[in-house]
Amino acid sequence: MEHDTALKLFEKMKQHGCAPNLNTYNALITGLCRERRLEEAWRLVDHSKQCGISPSEDIYNKLVECCCNKRMYEEAVDLIDVMLKHGFLPHLECFKRLVCGLYDDGNDEKAKATFYRLLHCGYNYDEVAWKVLIDGLLQRGFVNGCSELVNVMEKSGCTIDPQTHAMLIQGILSQREGTYT
């Protein structure tokens, strides 16, 4: 694996007194997360912190994505909490994967709680965020969850455009057939 070679080079860098920078950590952690090597990625995050280099928003998002890929949703929620404390918002795709993953696992209450928490942190008026989440839920057949989100959208003052209505109608009609795309 090429990331093993990169990790060996990383070790040699340290042995020769060459201090890794944020870009070095970003590249290594991103690669490890792609390969779902979360434990090794976490070790590098810890090492970067010991060296005074804080993880970037991108690194946090890669770690959340990796947790979701491994169906470690509780860990992903905890990581979102850390991100928010550092002033970072999860990328829209991470947000969708986490909330949809929690729904997939039957953890509806945690999915809703995570969704509401993120609403209060900056996504509440972003119609694109709502559409992405609604689409993700419809793809998984969670029409009822989408209905709840629409109610929250309306209460939050977010207008529902015709495209979103059409998406919901298509989801409701195709739920019986399992053909939502």
Give a structural overview.
InterPro entries: PPR_rpt, TPR-like_helical_dom_sf. Keywords: Repeat. Pfam families: PPR, PPR_1. It comes from Sesamum angustifolium. Belongs to the PPR family. P subfamily. By secondary structure, this protein is an all-alpha fold. It folds into 3 domains: about 1-55, no CATH class; about 60-125, no CATH class; about 125-180, no CATH class. It is built from 10 helices and no strands. The chain has helices at about 1-15, 20-35, 40-50, 55-70, 75-85, 90-105, 110-125, 125-140, 145-155, 160-175. α6 (about 90-105) packs antiparallel against α7 (about 110-125). The protein is elongated and about 60 Å long. It starts with a helix and ends in a 6-residue tail after the last helix. The relative contact order is 0.08. The model has no long low-confidence stretch (mean pLDDT about 85).
- Give a count of the beta strands, DSSP E runs of length 2 or more: 0
Structural class: mainly alpha
State the end-to-end CA separation.
Answer: 35 Å
What composes the largest sheet? none
Return residue spans where pLDDT drops below 50 for at least 5 consecutive residues: none
Number of domains: 3
What percent of residues adopt helix (DSSP H or I)?
over 70%
Strand content: under 5%
* Average pLDDT, all residues: 84
> Taking Cα atoms only, what radius of gyration do you get, to the nearest Å?
19 Å
Order of SSEs: HHHHHHHHHH
- Give the helix tally: 10
Oligomer: single chain
**Silhouette:** elongated
Protein name: Pentatricopeptide repeat-containing protein
Pfam families: PPR (PF01535), PPR_1 (PF12854)
Keywords: Repeat
InterPro entries: PPR_rpt (IPR002885), TPR-like_helical_dom_sf (IPR011990)
